[in-house]
Amino acid sequence: MRVHRPGFVTLAVLAALSGGCGGAAPAPNGGALPAPPTASAGPLAGKVVVLDPGHNGGNAAHPAEINREVDIITRSKACNAVGFKTADGYEESAFAWSVTQHLRPLLETMGAQVVLTRSNDEGVGPCVTERAAIGNDARADAVVSIHGDSGKPSGHGFHVIVPGLIPGRNDEVIEPSRKLGLAIRDAYQAGTGMPYANYRGEDGLRSRTDLGGLNLSTRPVVFIQCGNMRNAGDAAKMTDVAFRKRVAGALANGIKNYLTGT
Ligand SMILES: [Zn+2]
Fold first, then answer.
1. In what residue span(s) does the MurNAc-LAA domain sit (predicted)?
2. Which of 4, 190, 196, 204 is the most buried (most CB within 10 A)?
3. 123 pLDDT higher than 80
4. Where are the beta strands (DSSP E) in the chain?
5. What is the CATH number of the domain that holds 201?
6. Cα 227 to averaged position of ligand 1 atoms, centre (Å)
7. Sequence-distant (≥ 6) Cβ neighbours of residue 54 within 8 angstroms
């Protein structure tokens, strides 16, 4: 089994740390109880953010696992996809993983508990169904799935994908997801200088009902296509770690703005 759920490990460790104080040996400081773990402070204290770096670096080598069909409500679809790459071979999974690694500490510094849907960029999957379940099980206040797009080479810019309505299945997440999407769109444009995509979506937004990570989420969720990996200009930015750090900073601002209502 190559599916890792580091966030749950973290939850388990936190649970172990925060309980079980009764019956402890006398403290060396004269009997005062040890201080409880410091509650996280900051604007996102108490908030759970699930980050879903798209795809995985080992997917291409495991087509049978990745192409297994899963039910995403509106259709059946491959469990996961290999992802795209730039003309120079920089992989979408590596881009998404790098952004996530820069984004996670920014959110944690603001007090959020961050859960990832995968723990490295060498594994396989998990399936989109499992990725959605991780956000649901964590009762995430926001789920952000990070991707790079593959549009026509002349197309450039970014867009945010929000869940489309599937009546009776995801009615509750439509409005909060749209608010999350708008907050991320505005922060991404301001923080990276990237324009709205000129080849897909409208005003930097797009609604879809064919993505399992969106369809199956019971929590506010968006995908972001951070740029077009087949466009030379966007690709040059996405392969630059300084740009990926700006992406992380922009996404952190968008998530914070959504979660704090600013
Ligand atoms: Zn993708």
1. 132-256
2. 204
3. yes
4. 48-53, 69-71, 76-78, 113-116, 142-149, 159-163, 205-208, 221-228
5. 3.40.630.40
6. 11
7. 83, 92, 93, 96, 145, 146, 147, 148, 223
pLDDT in tens, 11-32: 443 444 443 333 344 444 445 5
Q: Using alpha carbons only, how large is the chain's radius of gyration in Å?
A: 19
Residue 213 located in a structural domain? yes
Residue 205: what residue type? Answer: L
Q: Which two tokens stand for residue 185?
A: 């769109």
- Count how many domains the chain has: 1
pLDDT exceeds cutoff 90 at 139: yes
**Does residue 224 fall inside a structural domain?**
yes
- Residue-wise pLDDT for 78-112, tens only, equals 999 999 999 999 999 999 999 999 999 999 999 99
pLDDT recorded at residue 34 = 57
Structural domain containing residue 163: 44-260
Does the residue 196 lie in any domain? Answer: yes
For residue 33, report the distance from its CA to the centre of ligand 1, in Å. 49
Output the CA 147–ligand 1 centroid distance in Å. Answer: 4
DSSP 8-class letter at 61 = G
Judged by average pLDDT, the poorest of 40-44, 131-135, 224-228 is 40-44
Cα–ligand 1 centroid distance for 120 (angstroms)? 16
CA 29 to centroid of ligand 1, rounded, Å? 54
Ligand 1 centroid from CA 224, angstroms:
9
